[in-house]
Design brief:
The protein is of the alpha/beta class and about 475 residues long. The protein has 17 helices and eight strands.
Length: about 475
C-alpha cells in the first residue's frame, strides 16, 4: 500500500481499539454480592473460604448468592432436590411460582467424590435469568475443577461465569466490547490487504498485457497474408477479435489505474480487477494461437517445436486412455473400442508427423491447413469415443455420479487447450478432463460422507413431579 491509505487505516484501527478498551473498562461488573450463604450437607467444601471467594465476585447488579452442596445419586433430579431444599430450609428464596428476584442459587450434587462425578445446578431469579445457552456456559465453567475434586474452585468459577452473564447490558457483551471492535480492526486490515492485492493484480495483468502485445501491429499485418483455407479463416477471425479486445483492455487498464485507493477496496473493484486479469489471460492465449499458427503457415524458425506441441497434446490424451485406472479397470464394448482407437490414433499421428516433417521443404500454407484439419478430426473422434465410454460406464449415475458429473463439467469449463486444434475444435468430452473430474468428484463425495460428532453432559430441565407448577429459571447438568 501507499502512504495515505496506510496512515488512514492505521489511525482508524487505533481509534477503534482505544474505544473498545474504554468501553470494556466502563462496562465491567462492579457490584459486590449482597448476602452470601453456603450450606454444605456433604462436608466437601470450606464454607468460610468459599463465602469469602464468593463475596469477592463482582456482578452487574445486586445479587444474593446461595450455594447448596449435597451428596447425591445418579438418578437424582437435582432441580427437584434443590426446590425441596429451598421449600424446607429457605422458603424466602421462593416467590411462587418462581425464584425470588435477585437470587443466584448454585447446587453441587456430588455422586462419587473420588472420581469427580456428579451434577451442577444453577437457578436464577426471573430478573437475572440469562437464557438456556448462557446457563450451559455457566455450568461448564466449573466442570474441569469438579472433575478434579476442586469443589471450592469449581463453585467460584460457576459463580464468576454467572456474574459476567446475568443481567448484562447489551453494550457490555463481548460481542460489543471485543468481537465487534475486533471485526472492525480485521476489516480494516483486510481492506488494506485488499487494496494492495487489487492494485498488484491490476499492475500484474497490465504487465502481461504489455508483454503479450509486443509487435502486435506486425503480427496483424502477417495474418492478412495467410492463404485462405479452413484454419486460415479461423485464425484471421481470432486476430481481428483480439485486436478489438486489445483496445477494450487498454481502456479498462486505464480506468482501473485511475481509481482512488478507497475504491480499490470495494467488492465491485476487486471483481473488476479479477475480470480484467482473466480477460488478459484469455487474450494472451488467443494471441499465442495466432502466433503459433503463423509460425506453422510461414514455415518460420521454430515451426518444428510448434508442430510437435500440437501432437503432444493429443498424444497425452491417448496415453491416459491406455494407462489410467479409470479406463483400464472398466469393461465393455465402448471401453474396448476406445482403447483400440487410442492405438490406431497413435499410428495415425506417427504417419502424419512423418508426412509433415518429410515434406518440410515443399510444405505450403495449404498443406499446413490440411494437416491441422486432420488433427482436429482425430481429436473429434477421440472425444466421441470417450463420450461413448462415459455413457456405457454410467459414471454419472447415483449420488457419487452427481459429484463426478459436476466436477467433470468444471474441468471442461476451466480447461484451456494448449494446441491450435484444441482451441478451435473443443470436444465436449476428453479423457484427461474425465479422469480429473472423476478423481475430484470422488474425493468430494467421500468428504461429504464424513461426519463429526461431539458429546457433552446431559442437561435436565423442569422440577419433577413434586414441583407443583413451579416454573423458576434454571437447570442442571452432569460433570
Amino acid at each position: 500500500m501507499k502512504k495515505p491509505e496506510v496512515l488512514v487505516l492505521s489511525l482508524l484501527a487505533v481509534l477503534v481499539i482505544a474505544a473498545a478498551a474504554v468501553l470494556h473498562t466502563l462496562t465491567r461488573p462492579s457490584a459486590p454480592p449482597g448476602d452470601v450463604l453456603v450450606e454444605d450437607t456433604a462436608g466437601l467444601v470450606d464454607p468460610v473460604l468459599l463465602e469469602e471467594d464468593l463475596a469477592a465476585q463482582r456482578f452487574h447488579t445486586d445479587v444474593d448468592v446461595v450455594v447448596y452442596v449435597r451428596e447425591g445419586q445418579y438418578a437424582d433430579n437435582v432441580n427437584e432436590e434443590t426446590l425441596t431444599f429451598a421449600r424446607e430450609q429457605h422458603p424466602e428464596l421462593i416467590d411462587h411460582p418462581y425464584w425470588r428476584d435477585g437470587l443466584l442459587l448454585i447446587t453441587l450434587s456430588v455422586e462419587d467424590a473420588a472420581r469427580g462425578q456428579g451434577q451442577i445446578g444453577t437457578y436464577f431469579g426471573e430478573d437475572l435469568a440469562p437464557g438456556e445457552s448462557a446457563e450451559t456456559r455457566i455450568q461448564q465453567a466449573g466442570r474441569d475443577a469438579f472433575q478434579s475434586n476442586n469443589w471450592n474452585d469449581g463453585i467460584v468459577q460457576v459463580a464468576g461465569a454467572a456474574a459476567r452473564l446475568m443481567d448484562r447490558p447489551w453494550y457490555a457483551s463481548p460481542a460489543v466490547t471485543m468481537v465487534a471492535p475486533g471485526i472492525i480492526v480485521v476489516l480494516l486490515l483486510a481492506a488494506g490487504i485488499t487494496i494492495g492485492w487489487t492494485r498488484g493484480r491490476i499492475d500484474a495483468a497490465a504487465g502481461r498485457l504489455g508483454e503479450a502485445t509486443t509487435g502486435i501491429d506486425d503480427l496483424m499485418d502477417r495474418v492478412e497474408h495467410i492463404i485462405i483455407g479452413e484454419y486460415a479463416q479461423k485464425i484471421r477471425g481470432t486476430a481481428h477479435s483480439s485486436l478489438r479486445e486489445y483496445t477494450d483492455l487498454l481502456a479498462e487498464r486505464d480506468r482501473l489505474r485511475s481509481l482512488s485507493w478507497f475504491r480499490l477496496a470495494l467488492p465491485g473493484t476487486v471483481a473488476a480487477a479479477g475480470r480484467f486479469s482473466r480477460r488478459v489471460d484469455d487474450f494472451t492465449a488467443d494471441l499465442k494461437v495466432v502466433r503459433d499458427s503463423l509460425t506453422l503457415y510461414e514455415h518460420a524458425p521454430g515451426w518444428e517445436q510448434v508442430w510437435g506441441a500440437q501432437l503432444q497434446g493429443i498424444r497425452e490424451e491417448l496415453r491416459q486412455v491406455r494407462s489410467a485406472p479409470l479406463f483400464t479397470n472398466q469393461r465393455g464394448a465402448a471401453r474396448d473400442a476406445l482403447v483400440a482407437y487410442a492405438d490406431e490414433a497413435e499410428r495415425d499421428l506417427d504417419r502424419l508427423d512423418s508426412e509433415v516433417r518429410g515434406a518440410a521443404g515443399d510444405r505450403t500454407a495449404e498443406t499446413t491447413d490440411i494437416a491441422l484439419a486432420q488433427l482436429e478430426a482425430l481429436q473429434g473422434d477421440l472425444g466421441a469415443r470417450t463420450q461413448a465410454f462415459l455413457d456405457e460406464s454410467r459414471l454419472f449415475e447415483g449420488t457419487q455420479g452427481r459429484y463426478v458429473e459436476k466436477a467433470t463439467a468444471k474441468q471442461l469449463r476451466s480447461h484451456r487447450p494448449a494446441t491450435i486444434t484444441g482451441y478451435y475444435g473443443r470436444s465436449p468430452m476428453m479423457p484427461a478432463a474425465l479422469i480429473a473430474g472423476h478423481r475430484l468428484g470422488m474425493r468430494q463425495y467421500r468428504q461429504s460422507q464424513q461426519r463429526s460428532s461431539s458429546s457433552g453432559g446431559s442437561v435436565t430441565r423442569g422440577f419433577g413431579s413434586s414441583g407443583g407448577g413451579f416454573r423458576g429459571s434454571g437447570s442442571s447438568s452432569r460433570f
